[in-house]
């Protein structure tokens, strides 16, 4: 018996296993994130969802030549049971240790376990490395993503929406002021880093006061930033910047407050070239992938959990606090309107959880400056 919500994954798994065999891979690990460790991802990055049918926001799959298993937490067990077909084992845990133990049982000694190094954070990669250490199995970084390889033309296209400047009335300070603040932190740090590398999408969006719509419910766009004492390099699809955004970034050219635009796909090669010099690169380990991290020599790294941009972004200045309060007031008006509507319609039997969620979304959209919800409404009763 399979519920009608299950995805038929036999052909997809067969194609993946063919690609694994061609490369001598005995187990392939597929996470539910993207190259920026984003909590929410675009359809193009939903590799786990495409391969298995499971569409929850947290999960890890491991595929061997004969087995396939999915690990997820208790929020998603019922959903996974309804979305996975009989090719999959559901593992009700998220610990890497338990994934490691499963791999050790499923993969013989001498086997290769492969992962895309651009889809795992530094810490997560280390955890897998520790779990397999001394077991006779090899952890092999594989830069060709095998799911992308078999997904081929069916894979959704890259984002193409505009990247725009946030109006000045919605920013606590200009991007130039933010850059100068980060450079000041670099100068004051005991290690005197020469550059800051930003991988988290919200870091770059906040730093430059730019917004996009590459990921549903998140006003971000795919990008990396390498900020040095004298230069600023933004790795992004520059064709998507509005004329106003481009002018904002390049108004100070040439000079230390000039943003040099580079292709998004060039980030790793550029970081590797930069790391050949007499430099120290400051990065946040929470958002940097092992793939980027591994091109920087260890002695040239300054590692902290969060970059100076992430910590600066977390402290809201007076203007930002005022804007947050105003946004919450507008949102409260929409919620009060919704509660009033519920009082009238629920006794008449005219509303269910789904139509209720649609109603509150519509009331929020009617408020000034609304750009949509930060996640799909979670609506329940009873």
From TrEMBL:
Domain Creatinase N-terminal residues, every copy: 12-143
Pfam families, per the entry: Creatinase_N, Creatinase_N_2
Signal peptide feature range: none
Molecular functions per Gene Ontology: aminopeptidase activity; metal ion binding
InterPro entries hit by this protein: Creatin/AminoP/Spt16_N, Creatinase/aminopeptidase-like, Creatinase_N, X-Pro_aminopeptidase_P
Keyword terms: Aminopeptidase, Hydrolase, Metal-binding, Protease
Similarity field: Belongs to the peptidase M24B family.
Name of the protein this chain belongs to: XPP2 aminopeptidase
Organism this protein belongs to: Eudromia elegans
